[in-house]
């Protein structure tokens, strides 16, 4: 498996830089080669077959790594005597070291070769995705710092691996975040197969880290056991042994110090960010893998409309109202949840807020889908790996909340569905399923529509406004002139709003409303509101470890779904 050699054409200085694109007549085409297809009739056919073969072999590499890691994790869960958590950490540490070696080679070697990055995918790695990589990566680093501090305090009953593993994780997170921030748009044109294998190895490692985070409840079980011991002491009951994967005695308990309590609370609070970071990195790395060897056509102009708030009034008002009410509900919930036992009324308030908001979002998405059907905009049929991945991620990430909802429905129907809180949870679960489905249809349909040209205000009006703005900037603006300027801006806004067709206006209102709603629904579970785990219903029905795995599988996917929906809805808003 070898990639094509670099052309003997003398490399120019412009090709060495990571330019967005090179003219089609001057760029050097690097055709891929593969030993299975060396007898193909044409160079283009051999290049296409070699590309498919490279993707196949790199995919097989990732599949074998994932199966090996899954076997280790399964053995740890069902037979933790033969395979321990330390063994899994050692395997993942080896994989992370291999990924670090490849990323370093890519940064210092592959990307710096002549004609290495002739094209860059403008759709890949948008700012909000790269920003989320940095955000979740920062919280993941803080999580590992808390884990190192917690293990250091309990060093007498902890393994040295529990300190080494988070340290390697911090280095891996920093290097990977830097790599994705600067190279997520690359369409690499050299060393195709080696780059594909490196990307797939990194994807497999992130998937295994996510799977470990979903199934490993060691520290959570330790803290839960300690809290039960404290409650039993206050209740005057005899201490009962609690199950724990770590097989440690009750002597391995957190001392009654502030710093240890901070490490415990911080670890539990930030834990979902680590799983979120792994999922986001996998999506960005997958787009990079699809873009290896891709040559972007330059005769197709890339239209990139700008984000403007013109033409929306009711969407921001309703969305801002939902955000403000949601923040109030979230703060009241957090105040109650941080106490010894959350009050029943706070759960009723929390689920009532969702029961009111979710139908509004569903109706808005259905109306938007109907408007899309009434429009005469043509479908965008150009090949776009980023857009295809967006649709796959929206459908896949929605499975997290949908799956948790079905588990909750079964638990409620099997226990007492006529109870007030249980009926609220049942209604919440059904509405959440319907809202995810309707929103996915609206976003995916909107992403496949070709953008319209923005005609508000016209070019002549924009030039006049720019000239007026420059004239105003050159002299001091008095209070009277400032009032006139505000009046002109208001009239211009009303003028642009009235000139929008009712379909485009409705799509913009709906998209902006759904953006703000998804933002508040992203904030609440991300920063600590987890009633699905704290209400105790499903946990008592399925058992602690089972429901822990279900929540840690569905909750990060749900958070990722809300964040990804915001990006998709902004695309729909801009192209409307």
Short synopsis of the structure:
The chain is mostly helical and 576 residues long.
What layout of secondary structure does this protein have?
Elements lengths: L12 H4 L26 H36 L6 H24 L10 E2 L6 H27 L7 H23 L2 E2 L4 H24 L2 H18 L22 H34 L22 H24 L6 H31 L10 H30 L5 H28 L11 H16 L4 H21 L2 H25 L4 H4 L2 H6 L1 H32 L1
Antiparallel strand pairs: 1-2
Keyphrases for this structure?
disordered N terminus, membrane, 576 residues, 2 strands, two-stranded antiparallel sheet, transmembrane helix
Q: If you had to describe this structure to a student in words, what would you say it looks like?
A:
- This protein has helices at 13-16, 43-78, 85-108, 127-153, 161-183, 192-215, 218-235, 258-291, 314-337, 344-374, 385-414, 420-447, 459-474, 479-499, 502-526, 531-534, 537-542, 544-575, and strands at 119-120, 186-187.
- It contains 18 helices and 2 strands.
- The protein is mainly alpha-helical and 576 residues long.
- Helix 8 (258-291) packs across helix 11 and helix 11 (385-414) runs antiparallel to helix 12.
- It starts with 12 loop residues before the first helix and ends with a helix.
- The chain has a domain at 309-451 and 495-575.
- The protein has a two-stranded antiparallel ribbon.
Percent helix, as a range, is over 70%
The H-and-E topology, N to C, reads as HHHEHHEHHHHHHHHHHHHH
Give the N-to-C terminal Cα separation. 45 Å
Whole-number radius of gyration? 27 Å
Q: What best-fitting shape do the alpha-carbon axes yield?
A: globular
Number of DSSP E strands? 2
Give start-end ranges of low-pLDDT stretches: 1-27, 237-250, 453-462, 469-477
- Number of H- or I-type helical stretches: 18
User: How much strand content do the residues show?
Assistant: under 5%
Biggest sheet, open or closed, and with what strands and sense?
2 strands, antiparallel
The secondary-structure class comes to mainly alpha
Report the average pLDDT across residues.
76
- Numbering strands along the chain, what is their spatial order in the largest sheet? 1-2
């Amino acid at each position: 498996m070898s990639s094509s050699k670099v052309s003997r054409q003398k490399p120019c200085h412009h090709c060495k830089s990571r330019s967005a694109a090179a003219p089609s007549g001057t760029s050097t085409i690097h055709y891929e080669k593969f030993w299975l297809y060396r007898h193909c009739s044409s160079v283009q056919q051999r290049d296409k077959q070699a590309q498919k073969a490279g993707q196949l072999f790199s995919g097989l590499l990732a599949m074998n790594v994932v199966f090996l890691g899954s076997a280790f994790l399964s053995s740890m869960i069902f037979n933790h005597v033969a395979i321990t958590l330390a063994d899994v950490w050692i395997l993942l540490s080896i994989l992370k070291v291999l990924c670090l070696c490849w990323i370093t080679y890519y940064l210092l070697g592959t990307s710096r070769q002549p004609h290495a990055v002739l094209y860059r995918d403008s759709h890949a790695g948008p700012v909000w995705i790269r920003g989320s990589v940095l955000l979740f990566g920062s919280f993941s680093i803080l999580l590992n710092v808390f884990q190192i501090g917690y293990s250091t305090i309990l060093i007498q009953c902890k393994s040295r691996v529990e300190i080494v593993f988070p340290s390697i994780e911090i280095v891996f997170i920093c290097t990977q975040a830097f790599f994705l921030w600067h190279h997520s748009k690359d369409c690499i044109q050299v060393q195709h197969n080696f780059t594909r294998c490196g990307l797939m190895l990194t994807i497999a490692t992130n998937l295994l880290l996510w799977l470990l985070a979903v199934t490993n409840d060691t520290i959570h079980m330790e803290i839960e056991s300690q809290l039960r011991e404290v409650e039993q002491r206050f209740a005057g009951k005899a201490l009962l042994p609690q199950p724990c994967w770590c097989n440690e005695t009750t002597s391995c308990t957190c001392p009654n110090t502030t710093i240890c309590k901070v490490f415990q609370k911080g670890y539990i609070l930030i834990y979902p960010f680590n799983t979120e970071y792994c999922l986001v990195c996998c999506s960005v790395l997958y787009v990079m893998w699809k873009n290896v060897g891709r040559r972007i056509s330059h005769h197709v102009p890339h239209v990139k409309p700008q984000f403007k708030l013109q033409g929306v009034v009711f969407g921001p008002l309703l969305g801002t109202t939902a955000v403000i009410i949601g923040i109030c509900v979230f703060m009241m919930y957090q105040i109650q949840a941080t106490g010894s036992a959350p009050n029943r009324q706070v759960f009723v308030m929390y689920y009532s807020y969702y029961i009111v908001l979710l139908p509004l979002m569903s109706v808005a998405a259905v109306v938007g889908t109907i408007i899309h059907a009434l429009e005469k905009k043509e479908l965008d049929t150009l090949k776009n790996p980023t857009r295809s991945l967006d649709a796959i991620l929206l459908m896949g990430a929605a499975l997290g909340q949908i799956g948790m909802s079905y588990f909750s429905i079964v638990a409620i129907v099997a226990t007492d569905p006529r109870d007030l809180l249980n009926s609220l949870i049942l209604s919440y679960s059904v509405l959440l399923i319907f809202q995810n489905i309707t929103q996915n249809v609206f976003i995916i349909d909107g992403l496949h529509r070709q953008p319209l040209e923005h005609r508000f205000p016209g070019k002549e009006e924009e030039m006049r406004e720019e000239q007026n703005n420059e004239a105003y900037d050159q002299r001091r603006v008095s209070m009277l002139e400032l009032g006139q300027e505000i009046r002109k801006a208001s009239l211009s806004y009303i003028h642009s709003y009235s000139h929008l067709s009712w379909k485009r206006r409705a799509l913009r209102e709906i998209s902006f409303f759904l953006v703000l709603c998804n933002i508040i629904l992203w904030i609440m579970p991300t920063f600590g509101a987890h009633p699905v785990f704290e209400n105790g219903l499903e946990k008592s029905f399925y058992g602690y470890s089972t429901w822990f795995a279900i929540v840690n599988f569905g909750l990060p996917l749900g958070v990722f779904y809300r964040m990804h929906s915001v990006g998709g809805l902004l695309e729909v808003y801009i192209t409307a």
